[in-house]
């Protein structure tokens, strides 16, 4: 789920998050740094969210959820099917065109 300019959402089971090192290390993923070593956060979710939080994108994501709730998932699927059908018809017409 996401919207234009939003960070999106990824839902996974905790047991699949077994990296000791963050996928994309960044600010906020390190608990402790010494001259010889460093320790990453133990919280697996926080460890994978390095860098500056995308606050505006998170607000946009919340609005996308609100739209989904207001419009309804079935209506969204219906509209997606109509759009897909239109694209399929257009591309099949273009494929038959002698100019292509």
From TrEMBL:
Superkingdom per UniProt: Eukaryota
Source organism (scientific name): Phytophthora citrophthora
Organismal lineage: Eukaryota, Sar, Stramenopiles, Oomycota, Peronosporomycetes
Cited PANTHER family: AMINOTRAN_5 DOMAIN-CONTAINING PROTEIN, SULFURTRANSFERASE-RELATED
Gene3D superfamilies: Type I PLP-dependent aspartate aminotransferase-like (Major domain)
Protein name, per record: Aminotransferase class V domain-containing protein
Residue span, Aminotransferase class V domain: 3-76
InterPro entries (UniProt xref): Aminotrans_V_dom, PyrdxlP-dep_Trfase, PyrdxlP-dep_Trfase_major
One Pfam family cited in the UniProt record for this chain: Aminotran_5
């Amino acid at each position: 789920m996401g919207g234009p300019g939003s960070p999106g959402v990824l839902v996974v089971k905790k047991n699949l998050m077994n990296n000791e090192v963050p996928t994309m290390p960044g600010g906020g993923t390190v608990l402790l740094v010494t001259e010889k070593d460093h320790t990453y956060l133990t919280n697996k979710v926080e460890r994978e969210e390095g860098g500056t939080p995308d606050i505006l994108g998170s607000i946009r994501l919340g609005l996308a959820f609100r739209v989904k709730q207001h419009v309804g998932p079935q209506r969204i699927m219906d509209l997606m099917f109509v759009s897909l059908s239109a694209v399929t018809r257009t591309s099949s017409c273009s494929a038959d065109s002698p100019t292509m």
